[in-house]
Each structure stands twice: as C-alpha cells, then as structure tokens.
Write a structure and sequence with these properties.
Blueprint: H1 7-24, E1 31-36, H2 43-57, H3 83-94, E2 98-103, H4 108-111, E3 116-118, H5 121-126, E4 133-137, H6 142-145, H7 150-171, E5 179-183, H8 193-208, E6 218-222, E7 225-227, E8 241-244, E9 257-262, E10 271-272, E11 295-300, E12 307-308, E13 317-324, E14 337-339, H9 352-364, H10 374-386, H11 426-439, H12 446-465, H13 469-478, H14 480-504, E15 510-512, E16 522-526, E17 529-532, E18 539-540, E19 542-548, E20 551-552, H15 556-567, E21 573-578, E22 589-592, E23 598-601, E24 605-609, E25 614-619, H16 628-644, E26 649-657, E27 660-663, E28 678-679, H17 682-687
Parallel strand pairs: 1-2, 1-3, 4-11, 4-13, 5-8, 5-9, 6-8, 9-11, 10-12, 25-26
Antiparallel strand pairs: 6-7, 13-16, 13-18, 14-15, 17-19, 19-20, 21-24, 22-23, 24-25, 26-27, 27-28
Helix pairs in contact: 1-2, 9-12, 9-14, 11-12, 11-13
Length: about 700
C-alpha cells in the first residue's frame, strides 16, 4: 500500500530523529522523548517510519560512538492513565537509553520533557485525515421529547443521522456505510443494572428498525459478549450499529464510525468527551464537497452544562450551526476553483540521476553508449583518467580519518579495539562512502537525500564504466577532493535547474470544481464564533469570529463593511454572505501573484441585490495587501465572463476613504489613487 505524503508527518519525523540522535550521544539513561499527536493522525505509521529511518540513517551518524541499538515496543491500553504505572518496574530493570512515549494525551511528566514533538490538530485537519469538528447535541428540548423516553428519542435521532450520512455518501459516489456507536452508561468493566436497561432498550428498538445481531446489522462489544466484529472496519461492512462499553474508547480504528450516542449515569456530575476520538477519522482520508460528511456527530443524555471537555478537545467541539435561509436565498451557481496540491520538498529525488549524468559527461568527457561493452567502458575509463581521476582500484587504499569510529561488528566477528590505518573491508568502505554522500547534499535535507546520491552514483559507474560496489567507493573516496566535489556541486546546480523548470511548467494546478458554487446548506462553528444580529445573511444565524475584546470578523475593516450591509438589508439587499477563506465550501477565483505563481482569491462578501445584480466585494485598505492590484484585476476578468454569459454582476476590492467606500469596475494599476472610483451605494446599484 502506498504511503500518503503528509507534510506534518515529515516535520514530526525530522524533529523526532534530531532528538533521538542527540539523546543517543548523551550520558545517563531513561531520557524521555515525548510524541503527542491527535487521534487519526497516524501515530503508528509515524513510529514505523521513524524506526525505518533510524535503521537506515544511524550508520551514517559517526559522531555517535555506540551505534548498536535495540528497540522494544510496548503498547499499554492507556498510556496516559494508570497503565504506565505498571511499566515502571520493567523500565527500571531495562534502563533504556531513550523512552519514546507516544499518545494522543500524554502524561504531565512526558509533556514536561524538553524533548517533545507535537502535531497540531489543525495540521491533521488541513491534511484531510480527520474531520473538521464534532457537532455535540445537548439534552433534548421538552417539545422535541413530547412525553417519550428521552433515551429512545436520542437513539432515534442518532439513527436518523446515520441514515442521512449514508445517503450523502451514496450521492458522493462512494461505498462508505457509516457506523453508529452506542456507548453504555457505566465506566466499569462489569455490566451494571443501568447498562442492562439501556442495552435491552436499544436492542428492542433497533430490532423494530430492522437492525439485529441475527441479520448482521448490529454488533456487540462487551465483556464476555462479542458478535459481528469481523471486518467491521471495512468501509462497506453491513454492520450499522455497534453497542459497546468504555473498553473500545482508545486504540480502536474504524474510520467509517461517524455517529456516537453516549448514555451516561445521571449521578455523574461531569463527563469527558474523550471517546469522540473514535469518530474523527476520515474514511477515505479526504474531505468531501458536502460539509455534513466532514463532521462527526455526538448525542448524549447529559445537559450541556454537565459536560466537561478536555482542553485539547475544546477547539474541536462545534455546537453552533447556521442553516441556509432558503426563504431569501436564490442560487448563484458560480464557478469556483481550487489548487491541486503539489508537494515541493527540499530533498534530492529521482531527477538527480539526469543531473549527475549530465554533470559527469561535462566534467569527465564520458558518454553513454547504445550498447554496453568492454571497449565502451574502456573509452570512458581513459576519459576519466585524462580528467585526472585515479582509476587503479587494485592499488588504492582509503585512509580512515582519525575522528571517525568505524563500527566493524559483524556476525561471527570480534570488535576491533583500535582504529585501523586503512579501510580493509567492503563494509568499512561503504560506511565512509555513506558519510561522503551525506556531506555532498549541499543545502538539501541530508537525511532524505544522501541515499539518492549514493544510489545514482552507483548507477553512474555501472552504466558508464561497468564498475560496482567497493570499486566505486574506492574511486570516489580517493578522488573526492576536488574532482568529485566539483561533480556533486555541478550536479546539484543542474538538479535545481531541472526542478525549477518543472515547477514553472506546471500550468494545471488551478482547477475548477465540477459542481458550481452556492452558499452551503449549513456550516458549523465552534466556540470561537459568536452570533451577530442580521436579517439577510444567507446563513442564519450569522456567526462572527471573535478575535478578542470588541474585535469581530477577520478585520476591523471587514466588520465596518458588514455593518454597512446590515444597514441596507431591508430596502436594497435580498441576501448577502460572508465567505470563508480556505475550505472546499468557500468561493474562490484564480489569479496570478506578482511573483508569477498561481493562487486563489477568496472574495470576502457575496451580495444579491433586490434587482438581481450579483455583487462580489472584498474590503481592503490602501496598500494593505501587496497583491491588491492583481487580485482586483482577476476579479474584474471573472465578472466580465459572468456578464458575457448573461449574469448581471459587478465587483471590486472596496476601500474606505473619508467615511465612504470606493470601488472600481475597471482594471487598475494601483490601489492608492482612487480617482474615478465609484462610491458604494446599495440604493444606486439596486436601481441600475
């Protein structure tokens, strides 16, 4: 299976390896290296990659005297709770050099370690590995309950949500069958009377809905009772509901789990929403155009003020929902765009082969032949000798620098107690060659590049000279200063040119969404947003980002323009919409930045005037954004295309000046001289 390329994982690996190699060289034992990452980020995969990289790179870290390491993987059920205490005696006896502690919720002691790496939750959300948030449903209102058992009503709503999500997945043309998790009340492993009551109630109600253990749609995970669990994590598994206790809350991976119903004993004064981590993963490791599929849903029988949310989860709970007001909204069906993400990493890759071969041909005057043969190899060897390269492999001896401690431990061998004057074995030569390749990476990321240099150097000798293994190492190491130094310097220059050319030739990074854009049917906001009074916002209610005392929306400038719109809602504006600036449901147009790169312009405000005119405006201040001019001109071009197709539209960047707002319907050369710009007056626009 192909491993996903994730920037946050690469950065975490880089930091973890740096700490690891540093700690190996320190005195004493039991150094704590802490790694904290949210559920769904891929902690296990990250650890596997870390061990792989350490095995590959440790032999090149000659500054570490003892490079013999053993790994012991211990996986307690709950590292952040009491389970770690049971490991103390074992760890004291093992006395490991490094304790690498991995969890979504580390202990305070682990977090106090100066050697810690943390993956922010927002990075994992941006990578589309986990959901954007969780919608928490508080206790039902009395009018919704209508005299029925609240536990049954909650179950009904949770089942309805599961069915709704299944239909949305079908519309998205994917075979995901969402799973509803039902957690029994008590925290103990033993089944309590309350557990039994809820279990019987749920099983009876589910059977009426056609969901039973017998037909394979209901699974049970309880102490001493486990049914229909085989392949439950598969995306199209027929199980629709899983009944469980606290036992699966941690360490369980089922990405199709989307809805969580949690029954709690009412005598519990506080409740921690930690179990919600089970519904955070994205089933296909991507977000969907329909925002409903990008959130998890939690139903509980506790009042909102009885719920305690862990600090690390606080930003994740989304309780504020705004729905599209279809009484005033009319579709606009606009073209919207996105950028196909392209990974640009500072590492040497496959194209280094071309760069190295071209550099060798230029410096050494060697040529690749149509057919390999002794005469062809001989000609290139002569050319190398004429370029000053010593090719007499049989008589070359490679000295071991005094500051390098070569580890010669092999199966059946005895460790040498002294440093030899010359490298005698192929292993020693390879270690020195690895070190030389590491030093030849230039400004590229060494740990991700040196093996490419090694591999392509071996290919160079194989294809041009018919040479392999230790012979290659000897020639490069003996001639490394300055001839092969020049070779790698030139190869890196050519490689940079190749990659720059490839980057500049990519003209298809900006793509149009298949479906036209309209204001989303709903959006969910977390507690960083507050309600703001308005009558004509397309989403009701309007939620404003709270930036602090008296600081709402994304800027003061934007806030002032929104207040102007609200003042004109009744007479001239049918509806307006505060656009987002980063997500798939946000409206964006393409533009070319001043440096020539492609980017997206998320226009802040979309307005539908009562006469049918569509307004696209983005509040700015003079020279507040170096890209103001190119963004404006891209918007003018977009509006011209709309008008050419029969839509009535206008728009501009819009700038406050002496109590007025000015906009321009033409292309501009600067945003400082507002001469000739129109005054924004909704009444005038509405009469045109």
């Amino acid at each position: 299976m192909k491993l996903l390329q994730l920037d946050y994982r690469d950065e975490a690996l880089k930091q973890l390896k740096s700490h690891f190699f540093n700690l190996l060289n320190k005195d004493f034992y039991r150094h704590i290296l802490a790694f904290q990452a949210p559920t769904g980020s891929g902690k296990t995969v990250t650890m596997a990659c870390l061990l792989r990289d350490i095995v590959n790179e440790l032999p090149t870290h000659f500054e570490i005297a003892n490079r013999n390491v053993t790994y012991i993987w211990i996986a307690p059920n709950t590292l952040h709770l009491q389970s770690y205490a049971s490991l103390k005696m074992i760890l004291q006896r093992i006395r490991p050099k490094i304790e690498l502690r991995v969890s979504a919720t580390l202990t305070d002691k682990s977090l106090r370690s100066p050697y810690r790496v943390m993956i922010p939750r927002e990075d994992v959300v941006k990578a589309q590995m986990i959901k954007k948030g969780v919608h928490l449903n508080p206790l039902l209102k009395a009018e919704e309950q209508a005299g029925r058992d609240a536990d049954i009503v909650l179950l009904q709503k949770a089942l309805e949500k599961r069915l709704e999500l299944e239909q949305l997945y079908q519309e998205a043309k994917t075979n995901i069958r969402p799973l509803l998790l039902i957690q029994l009340p008590s925290d103990t492993a033993k089944i309590s009377a309350d557990d039994t009551r809820i279990r019987d109630l749920a099983v009876e109600y589910l059977s009426v809905q056609g969901i039973t253990e017998q037909n394979g749609k209901l699974a049970v995970w309880l102490s001493g009772e486990k049914t229909n669990l085989e392949d439950i994590s598969k995306p199209d598994n027929m199980v629709e509901v899983l009944l469980f206790k606290q036992a699966i809350a941690l360490g369980w991976d089922c990405p199709r789990a989307s809805v969580l119903l949690i029954y709690r004993e009412m005598r519990n004064e506080r409740f921690t929403v930690q179990t919600m981590g089970r519904i955070l993963r994205m089933p296909e490791q991507k977000h969907y155009p329909n925002e409903a599929l990008n959130f998890g849903y939690v139903y509980t029988n506790l009042n909102k003020d009885l719920i305690t949310i862990l600090p690390e989860e606080a930003d994740y709970i989304s309780e504020n929902r705004a729905n599209r007001n279809n009484d005033i909204y009319s579709a606009v069906a606009l073209k919207s765009y996105y950028i196909q993400k392209e990974i640009d990493r500072n590492r040497i890759g496959l194209h280094f082969r071309e760069a190295l071969f071209r550099a060798a041909e230029k410096l050494f005057n060697i040529k690749i032949g149509s057919e390999a043969g002794e005469s062809f190899y001989h000609t290139n060897k002569l050319a190398m000798q004429q370029a000053g390269i010593i090719m007499d492999v049989a008589n070359i001896e490679i000295g071991i620098p005094a500051d390098v401690n070569i580890d010669v431990t092999q199966v059946g061998a005895t460790r040498a107690e002294h440093v030899e004057k010359f490298a005698k074995t192929a292993y020693q030569l390879e270690q020195l060659f690895n070190r030389y390749c590491l030093a030849s990476c230039g400004d590229y990321q060494k740990d991700a590049s040196w093996e490419r240099i090694k591999y392509h150097t071996q290919l160079l000798f194989e294809e041009y000279l018919g040479m392999f293994g230790a012979d290659v190492y000897k020639i490069v190491l003996y001639n490394q200063d300055p001839r092969f130094n020049d070779l790698y310097n030139l190869a890196r220059e050519i490689y940079a040119q190749i990659m720059a050319a490839k980057a500049s030739s990519k003209t298809t990074t900006v793509k149009e969404y298949e479906q036209p854009w309209d204001v989303p049917e709903f959006k969910i906001f977390n507690d960083k947003y507050v309600e703001y009074e308005t009558k004509a916002h397309a989403l009701d209610p309007l939620y404003a980002r709270n930036r602090g005392v008296n600081q709402l929306f994304d800027s003061t400038n934007e806030h002032q323009f929104i207040d102007l719109l609200i003042a004109n809602e009744g007479d001239h504006i049918q509806w307006w919409y505060k656009n987002g600036s980063s997500n798939k449901e946000d409206f964006a147009i393409p533009y070319i930045k001043r440096d020539g790169t492609q980017s997206l312009f998320y226009i802040d405000i979309v307005i539908k005037f009562k006469n049918g005119v569509l307004g696209l405006f983005d509040p700015k201040t003079v020279e507040s954004d170096p890209e103001n001019v190119v963004k404006h001109n891209a918007l003018i071009e977009y509006i011209e295309q709309l008008n050419a197709k029969g839509k009535k539209a206008l728009g501009s960047i819009i700038i406050p000046q002496k109590g007025s707002w000015r906009y321009c319907i033409n292309r501009i050369e600067n945003d400082k001289d507002l001469t000739g710009w129109d005054f924004f007056n909704p009444a005038n626009i509405n009469t045109n």
